[in-house]
């Protein structure tokens, strides 16, 4: 087993994420490409996670909610600047509030830390409190009282960010499939911008970095969490290692960039210099890492779920819309940082047309067994 931290171990040597124009953050602001407007699919997925009840079962079993703890501290690592962030945290707090004993729930104090990279759009996130949060005075009602203290914590979630034994509940959703940095010694390849088309050597480099990052995350949280604290993680995984496949529209992404280069809209060198930070973990790697950390964390629930649901009768337009919307919200700021706003807008227009055409003529097929898969993990600190 790899060495695990004691409480006093505060070491972390990872470098800062990316460079100023390539930091992997969700699309900022509240415009048409923003994560605020294009994260309904992520919200729907988390609704399914909460509805399953597995997380609530672990929350219900938290002794700290019954032993008179004055202040419960909650941290959302790698948070986004969208209503989802607020709603997810408040869903957890409401469950905790309903299980607090020995005092009135109205007297229980909560402190919530919204953690993200330095470039995260915290301004948009906190503006959303005025319209979304039950913590905002104007939104309080007799039946919906929820009061908690908030703070933003900039930095990398792969680093130590909190004092030892200070966090009671930790969550991280849709974050841990982003590597902290792209290896500077990646093999030269014309396919590094879309990892699905990368060489095995490139895949191995991403794998090494992703596994290092996941261990760093678990090391840090093991020090920061109290004994009995609960952790909820949601991140992308894939069952097969190589070739890398997570999304039925990956080929469309590659084809659009090819077309933009051939039409002279994008310089080939600019296109080739784009490197992705997104990497869906190989499920077997994750399971091996979790096994190494079994002395520190007890797994209560572990499940792999498809990102989307598949109601019958979906039209090609509906299939297209949910993929394009999700990708706009996730990648627009990243693309704009590398290619510029105009090229990014042209890309989205061409991509939407190609994806719609693919779903219409059957050249793109979206099935539950062949789309994005996410690991839902609930664990507690031993």
TrEMBL record:
Where are the stretches annotated Disordered?
Answer: 1-33
UniProt key word Magnesium = yes
What residue ranges carry the coiled-coil annotation? none
The protein's UniProt keywords, in alphabetical order, are:
Magnesium, Metal-binding
The UniProt regions of compositional bias labelled Basic and acidic residues, in chain numbering, are: 1-10
Biased composition annotated in UniProt, kind: Polar residues: 11-33
Name of the protein in question: Uncharacterized protein
Q: Give the species.
A: Riccia sorocarpa
Q: What lineage does UniProt assign to this protein's organism?
A: Eukaryota, Viridiplantae, Streptophyta, Embryophyta, Marchantiophyta
């Amino acid at each position: 087993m790899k060495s695990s931290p004691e409480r006093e171990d505060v070491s972390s040597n990872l470098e800062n994420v990316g460079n100023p124009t390539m930091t992997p953050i969700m699309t900022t602001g509240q415009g048409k490409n923003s994560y605020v407007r294009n994260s309904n699919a992520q919200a729907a997925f988390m609704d399914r996670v909460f509805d399953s009840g597995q997380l609530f079962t672990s929350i219900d079993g938290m002794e700290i909610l019954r032993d008179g703890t004055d202040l419960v501290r909650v941290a959302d690592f790698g948070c986004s600047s969208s209503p989802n962030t607020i709603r997810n945290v408040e869903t957890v707090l409401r469950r905790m509030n309903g299980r607090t004993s020995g005092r009135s729930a109205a007297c229980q104090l909560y402190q919530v830390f919204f953690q993200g990279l330095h470039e995260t759009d915290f301004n948009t996130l906190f503006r959303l409190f005025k319209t979304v949060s039950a913590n905002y005075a104007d939104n309080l009602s007799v039946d919906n009282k929820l009061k908690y203290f908030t703070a933003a914590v900039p930095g990398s979630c792969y680093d130590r960010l909190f004092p030892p034994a200070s966090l009671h509940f930790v969550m991280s959703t849709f974050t841990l499939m982003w590597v902290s940095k792209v290896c500077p010694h990646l093999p030269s390849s014309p396919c590094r911008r879309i990892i699905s088309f990368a060489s095995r050597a490139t895949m191995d480099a991403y794998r090494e970095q992703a596994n290092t990052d996941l261990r760093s995350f678990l090391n840090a949280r093991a020090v920061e969490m109290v004994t009995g604290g609960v952790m909820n993680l949601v991140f992308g995984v894939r069952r097969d290692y190589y070739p890398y496949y997570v999304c039925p529209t990956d080929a469309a992404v590659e084809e659009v960039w090819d077309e933009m280069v051939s039409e002279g809209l994008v310089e080939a060198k600019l296109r080739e210099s784009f490197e992705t930070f997104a990497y869906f973990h190989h499920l077997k790697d994750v399971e091996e890492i979790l096994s190494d950390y079994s002395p520190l964390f007890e797994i209560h629930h572990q499940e792999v779920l498809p990102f989307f649901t598949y109601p019958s009768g979906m039209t090609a337009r509906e299939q297209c819309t949910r993929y394009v919307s999700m990708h706009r919200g996730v990648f627009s700021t990243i693309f704009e940082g590398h290619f510029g706003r105009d090229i990014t807008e042209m890309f989205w227009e061409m991509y939407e047309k190609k994806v719609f055409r693919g779903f219409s003529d059957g050249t793109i097929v979206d099935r539950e067994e062949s789309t994005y898969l996410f690991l839902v993990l609930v664990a507690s600190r031993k």
